[in-house]
UniProtKB/TrEMBL annotation:
Bilayer-spanning residue ranges: 7-28, 34-58, 79-109, 115-134, 141-159, 171-193, 214-237, 257-279, 291-310, 316-336, 348-369
Residue ranges occupied by any Amino acid transporter transmembrane domain in the UniProt entry: 8-271
One annotated GO molecular function: L-arginine transmembrane transporter activity
Keyword Transmembrane helix part of the UniProt annotation: yes
Top-level lineage group: Bacteria
Major localization listed first in the record, in broad terms: membrane
GO cellular component, one term: vacuolar membrane
Keywords: Amino-acid transport, Membrane, Transmembrane, Transmembrane helix, Transport, Vacuole
Protein's UniProt name: Amino acid transporter transmembrane domain-containing protein
Family from the record: Belongs to the amino acid/polyamine transporter 2 family.
Annotated organism of origin: Candidatus Jorgensenbacteria bacterium GW2011_GWB1_50_10
Membrane topology qualifier: Multi-pass membrane protein
Length: 371
């Protein structure tokens, strides 16, 4: 791989690896190692196909354009409005997930009231939403380094112990669908694809073209490998896995747990204000919302969802992945079909539709129908 190809793949992988990784050890523990591995490879393949479709759409227009631009261009007006609303709601739920995780990481450092922990994290994260782009770029690098350190320490420590989860488990209906939301969330990195296309265009200008297809493949499957090794590491360190992963490592020294807590906080803190700033920018630049209204929404809505009852990590993450990322996948496939109505691989859209539709419908079924 060329330097440009590695850079493009790193952009995708760095965007992809985030809060979702902490849910995966619990998921694997519930479905079994081999089934979990199958789900991991399957959803990585789904996202490679989806990101190749999106990259092809992005290539059709010069300049940088986001999802909302193509939704407005190729979807019916009412559907494009729903698509844009779904993306904005998805962003707010992602911010809420970081609020949910904050007390878990803070508890590894010191005992404190969860509501106080959430409030402090929200305040510090909100302040930096208004920081300069230079600060945000440095923060993105810091957050990436923090999570890489946590992952590799867990892999190193857990690799010495083997793993305690069963290879096989009998799957119920609930456990069969359990991985859908967390894995959709864990592979979500749509915003990185436009940056990869920009990188491809710059490389062509300097006569150093690279395979975007290869970069998307490696940028998706390298995180999949990291996820799998992280899962094995956690399962090697404990047989009582919680949905948040790190707070189940009670047998590790308290000093190491405190380091994990600090690095976990850095990871979600940097992600919180970068995503928050992006949400505010979308509202002000694309939707022409007044800056003070956009600022109020990004400050109030995540905290409002938290106090409205979205306080459990795995259910909130699964809901976000299944519903909003399910919708996102369906909309992206539809846009691709409209841009390339005679594409020879148009048939591939139907199995992809099925994956995202099943995730969406099962989540809605669980939400609205009695168990």
């Amino acid at each position: 791989m060329s330097r440009n190809s590695i850079l493009a793949a790193s952009i995708l992988a760095g965007t992809m690896i985030g809060a979702g990784i902490f849910s995966l050890p619990y998921v694997f523990n519930e479905v079994g190692i081999l089934a979990g591995f199958f789900y991991l490879v399957f959803f990585a393949s789904v996202y490679v196909a989806l990101y190749l479709m999106y990259a092809a759409v992005l290539r059709t227009r010069e300049g940088r354009h986001d999802f909302s631009y193509f939704a407005d261009l190729y979807l019916p007006k009412k559907i494009s409005g729903l698509a844009s609303l779904a993306i904005l709601a998805e962003t707010i739920f992602v911010l809420t997930i970081y609020l949910v995780l904050a007390p878990t990481f803070i508890s590894l450092i010191a005992e404190t009231n969860p509501l106080f922990a959430v409030s402090v994290f929200w305040f510090l994260g909100s302040i930096f939403i208004f920081a300069s782009l230079a600060w945000q770029g440095m923060a993105e690098l810091l957050g990436t380094l923090a999570i890489i350190f946590v992952v590799f320490v867990v892999i190193f420590l857990g690799g010495e112990s083997g793993f305690n989860a069963p290879l096989f488990k009998n799957l119920s209906v609930a456990s069969f669908f359990l991985p859908f939301g967390p894995l959709l969330f864990s592979f979500a990195a749509r915003v990185a694809v436009s940056r990869m296309v920009d990188e491809e265009r710059e490389a062509k200008k300097t006569s150093r073209p690279f395979s975007l297809k290869g970069a998307i493949f490696w940028g998706t499957f390298v995180p999949a490998l990291v996820y799998f090794l992280f899962v094995l590491g956690i399962l090697g360190l404990t047989d009582n896995v919680t949905p948040e992963a790190l707070n189940s490592l009670e047998n590790l020294p308290s000093s190491l747990l405190a380091i994990f807590g600090i690095l976990g906080l850095v990871t979600i803190w940097t992600s919180y204000f970068i995503i928050g700033a992006n949400f505010r920018e979308i509202l002000t630049e694309d939707k022409k919302v007044r800056p003070w209204i956009a600022s109020a929404l990004v400050l109030i809505l995540p905290l409002g969802l938290y106090f409205a009852g979205f306080r459990d990590f795995l259910p909130t993450l699964s809901f976000t992945g299944s519903v909003f990322l399910g919708l996102e996948g369906i909309f992206l496939i539809t846009i691709w079909r409209r841009v390339f109505p005679h594409h020879p691989k148009k048939w591939l859209s139907w199995p992809l539709y099925l994956v995202f539709a099943v995730a969406l419908l099962y989540a809605l079924f669980q939400m609205f129908l009695p168990s």
